[in-house]
Amino acid sequence: MLGLTRSVARYQAIPRDDEPLRAQLKALATCYPRYGYLLLHALLRQEGLVINHKRTYRLYREDGLQIRTRRRKRLVRPRALMALPDRVNQRWSLDFVSDQLASGRRFRVLNIVDDFSRECVGQLVDTSISGRRLARFLDEIAQQRSLPASIVCDNGPELTSKVMFFWARERKVVLALIQPGKPKCVHRELQWQVSGQLPQSALVPEPC
């Protein structure tokens, strides 16, 4: 009478067992408290636990794992000096300098310095350097020498991107993000030693 097939009329939904996925989602949210559901979904997908992001979002909302968006007062922290490395290739520092061509088009130079030997490990010049381009350049360097245990860098968008997060995770490299604000000028001392060797008329360090 209704024009429905017998299989449709008698279908009974089978509930999914979300407990393993829910438990792993909570564990990742505890380990990475500042990550939203998209980054957590990418981690779960790497482990083969989930494919559809809508399922992750449903569990994310049901368990109240949303990031609090209320703005907090900025804390005044004393400048902490980083421990000096005691061997080559233990820690690198990474930073950008920039300038513009006669046509007005801006370009950037990425400097990578070994903090122990003060060696310039690599330089990359381009008009735009994204997180994907940066990860590819670091892999090119890794073909000639081993990667360090940690890389000191600022909180730029290309360095805090999802691409760089998974690149560092897969290669077991710690991205030591410095404190936002003026303290990063302290950590740029090594970078400016390299930038100072470039023609002063060619490059202008990015402001702190």
Secondary-structure blueprint of this entry?
Blueprint: H1 6-9, H2 19-31, H3 37-46, H4 53-62, E1 91-100, E2 106-114, E3 120-126, H5 131-142, E4 150-153, H6 162-171, E5 174-177, H7 184-187, H8 189-195, E6 204-205
Parallel strand pairs: 1-4, 4-5
Antiparallel strand pairs: 1-2, 1-6, 2-3
Helix pairs in contact: 2-3, 3-4, 5-6
Task: Quickly describe the structure.
With 208 residues, the chain is α/β, with parallel strands linked by helices.
Key terms for this structure?
HTH-like_dom; Integrase_cat-core; alpha/beta; disordered C terminus; elongated; 6-stranded mixed sheet; Nucleotidyltransferase, domain 5; nucleic acid binding; about 210 residues
Look at the structure and give the mean pLDDT. Answer: 79
Number of helices: 8
Radius of gyration: 23 Å
Low-pLDDT regions: 182-186, 199-208
Largest sheet report:
6 strands, mixed
The tally of strands reads 6
CATH class of the largest domain: Alpha Beta
Find the CATH superfamily of the largest domain.
Ribonuclease H-like superfamily/Ribonuclease H
Task: Note down, in words, how this protein is organized.
The protein is of the alpha/beta class. The protein has 2 domains: about 15-60; about 90-205, Ribonuclease H-like superfamily/Ribonuclease H (Nucleotidyltransferase, domain 5, 2-Layer Sandwich). The protein is about 35% helix and about 15% strand. It contains 8 helices and 6 strands. Strands 1, 2, 3, 4, 5 and 6 form a 6-stranded mixed sheet that branches. Strand 2 and strand 3 (about 120-125) form a beta hairpin. It is elongated.
